[in-house]
Design brief:
Layout (H helix, E strand, L loop, with lengths): L6 E8 L2 H13 L5 E14 L2 E15 L3 H11 L8 E4 L5 H9 L17
Antiparallel strand pairs: 1-3, 1-4, 2-3
Helix pairs in contact: 1-2
């Protein structure tokens, strides 16, 4: 297996589908992420400012190189409506080589996504 830069699976949750799409489209347009899955209808129960809260949210699963964590985090905060957005990254300890290469290539300037069959990697 080739020695490739590490990738991560970043996560954030948002309160509306519109915000999920907005953040996802912006991260892709800025080449900060290669692919983002939006998982609808999460039920979140959490403690916030002394109260137990319960909300329905959307989860974004963001595939990106580990080196872009800070830039992705900044972009999420720029568009997020929460005072304290959840921004997590889980290291990917193993990935199919072609998929990992695709994740790394699609954030690089000059790559033309139309040349690749990205739908195979969702």
């Amino acid at each position: 297996m080739p020695d490739l830069d590490p990738i991560v699976l970043m996560m954030t949750s948002v309160g509306t589908e519109q915000q999920a799409v907005e953040i996802s489209e912006e991260l892709i347009a800025r080449r900060l992420a290669t692919c983002i899955n939006i998982v609808p209808c999460l039920r979140s129960i959490y403690r916030w400012k002394g109260k137990v809260c319960e909300d329905t949210e959307y989860l974004l699963l963001i595939k990106t190189p580990a080196r872009l964590f800070d830039a992705v985090s900044a972009a999420i905060r720029e568009f997020h409506s929460y005072e304290l957005p959840e921004i997590l990254a889980l290291p990917v300890t193993a990935a199919e080589t072609n998929f990992q290469q695709w994740v790394l290539q699609m954030v690089e300037p000059g790559e033309d996504p139309a040349d690749d069959d990205a739908s195979d990697y969702d």
